[in-house]
Each structure stands twice: as structure tokens, then as C-alpha cells.
Design a protein that fits this description.
alpha/beta, Arc Repressor Mutant, subunit A, D-Maltodextrin-Binding Protein, domain 2, 3 domains, three-stranded antiparallel sheet
Length: 301
């Protein structure tokens, strides 16, 4: 079986939701289309399509395989034109992941210009606090804030994110100002933990000798995502320690106030991370270059 031909045939059937329509589009007999898809299913050991007399739909396995096929076929098309005109239109799908504050503040407001310049591109944007698995989940690139662990990936360093400590004016009104490290004994902190039940250590900072220190603080609330973390601080529920870029708007409007500037966490490294491939698709390289420019203001905020 010609696997490439079978994949192209399967994609046509999936998109047109019909064997007959796919056969017409491919100028092939309907029986050949059915046979190629059946052989593909037999090779994979999975049913890709649900067939009824009225319509054809993707199974769960078929949906996953369809997306991978689209990516692979786009990669093959790109490899075939590797030494052709570099201005040739980008096409295919990009799957990317980044923290919510970054996507909301920097990427989404500017994405229209990028997509307008590349109308044949499709982007799947994941924005969550969860650290995704690039390889297993099929991501082309992700934005990572913090230290990297997986050495099998390639990282493009953007810079460092300044960190700050902040509270709301309402919190200060209720509990008093925070001007000295010793004041923290009488104040509350909002705890952040992606896995509830695993408490963070408290207020963290680097002393003048560069040593990592932790102060235990009172807390009545633990959250597991960045939106809730900031919302809790705005509601006057305690102090938070966050990347400065994530609260710039609130700081400018006076909704949050920076405290203890001499006891911030060290700046956190920011990288764009992508799989270690010999031939990184041009659409991925172009997007990474564009994304790098969008992220630069964070490291200078």
C-alpha cells in the first residue's frame, strides 16, 4: 500500500465526509477510495471512520490521526519545496501552548496581523497553567517561564521575567501596610499550587547573599491557576508573588500595589521550546521568530 496516497485519501474523506465526494475530488473510483481507507485502518489497527448510509464521521482515533496526517502532509509538501522560493506561502497547522497572561496580553491582540500575512495557516492555541508534553501531545512549540527540565528539547532564550510582590489597596486598608520583612508575620498570603493538596512553602525571596529563603505566612486560600491567583489578590485575600508582566494593567490602574521590592523572587527565565527535529517546518520557524518579537516587552517590563 502507498501509505502517503492512503493518508491523502483518508484526509479527503474526512474533510468531505463522504467517500463519493472524495472519489470525485481525487478522480478515483469510489471502490479504490474505500479500499485505501480500509487498508490504512488495518495497518493502524484502529477504526478511523464511522460509516452510515447517510454520512461519514471521524472516530476518536480518526480525529487524532486526521490532525497528525494534516501536519505530516504539510511537512512533506514543505520538504519537497525546501530549496524552492523562500517566499512561498506558508500552510498547515501550528499547535502552540503558552501561559494565559502571555496569550491574552501580548499574542492574541497581535495575532491578526500574523494570520493575515499567512492566510493558509491554522493555529491551535492552548493557554493553561498545565505544563504540556510537547512530543506526546503534538505541540510545535510552547512558551515556558521558569527553569527547563527536559534536555531533549530545543530552547530559544527570550530573556528573564521580573517578579514582584503585590497586594490590593483594600487589603492594606484591612490589614495594614507591608514595609518590612518582619511585617509578614501578621499578614496573609494566597497560596498557588497546580495540584491542590500540595502546599507551597510560603513567602520566598533571595537574601543579600543570594541564598534562597522562605518565610511561613498565614493563608486561608490556595488556588490552582493564575487567573484565580490574581483575582484573589484583587479581592483582598492576601499577598501574591507574580511575574510583573502579568499585573501591569492592574498596577497602572492602582488596583494592585507593589510591596517589599527588595525581596522579590529572582527573575524567571523565559524560553520558546520546540522538539529536536532535523528539519523544523518553515511555518514553525517563522512563527517562532514572530513570537519572539511579541515576547520581548515582557523581559523589559
Amino acid at each position: 500500500m502507498n501509505e502517503l496516497n492512503a493518508m491523502k485519501t483518508f484526509v479527503q474523506v474526512a474533510e468531505l465526509k463522504s467517500f463519493s465526494a472524495a472519489a470525485l475530488a481525487l478522480s478515483m473510483p469510489k471502490s479504490s477510495v474505500s479500499q485505501l481507507v480500509k487498508q490504512l485502518e488495518d495497518t493502524l489497527g484502529a477504526r478511523l471512520l464511522n460509516r452510515t448510509t447517510r454520512r461519514v464521521t471521524l472516530t476518536n482515533e480518526g480525529t487524532v490521526f486526521y490532525q497528525r496526517c494534516k501536519d505530516m502532509l504539510a511537512d512533506i509538501d514543505e520538504l519537497q519545496t525546501l530549496f524552492h522560493n523562500k517566499d512561498e506561502a506558508l500552510s498547515g497547522r501550528l499547535r502552540v501552548d503558552m501561559p494565559q497572561p502571555i496569550s491574552r496580553r501580548l499574542v492574541l491582540p497581535n495575532l491578526d496581523s500574523f494570520l493575515s500575512a499567512h492566510p493558509q495557516l491554522e493555529i491551535e492555541l492552548s493557554s493553561s497553567d498545565r505544563r504540556v508534553n510537547l512530543i506526546e501531545e503534538g505541540f510545535d512549540c510552547v512558551v515556558r517561564v521558569g527553569n527547563l527540565e527536559d534536555s531533549s528539547l530545543i530552547a530559544k532564550k527570550i530573556g528573564h521575567c521580573p517578579m514582584i510582590n503585590c497586594v490590593s489597596p483594600g487589603y492594606i486598608k484591612n490589614y495594614g501596610n507591608i514595609t518590612e520583612l518582619s511585617d509578614l508575620a501578621e499578614h496573609y498570603i494566597v497560596r498557588y499550587s497546580q495540584t491542590l493538596g500540595q502546599l507551597d512553602p510560603g513567602f520566598e525571596y533571595q537574601d543579600t547573599q543570594g541564598d534562597w529563603q522562605t518565610l511561613t505566612m498565614k493563608s486561608q486560600l490556595t488556588v490552582n491557576n493564575t487567573d484565580a491567583y490574581k483575582a484573589a489578590c484583587l479581592a483582598g485575600l492576601g499577598l501574591i508573588q507574580v511575574p510583573r508582566h502579568g499585573v501591569l494593567d492592574e498596577l497602572s490602574r492602582g488596583e494592585l500595589i507593589q510591596v517589599l521590592p527588595d525581596y522579590n523572587l529572582p527573575p524567571m527565565p523565559m524560553n520558546i521550546v520546540y522538539p529536536n527535529r532535523r528539519h523544523l517546518p518553515r511555518r514553525t520557524r517563522v512563527f517562532i521568530d514572530w513570537l519572539s518579537e511579541q515576547l520581548k516587552p515582557i523581559t523589559h517590563s
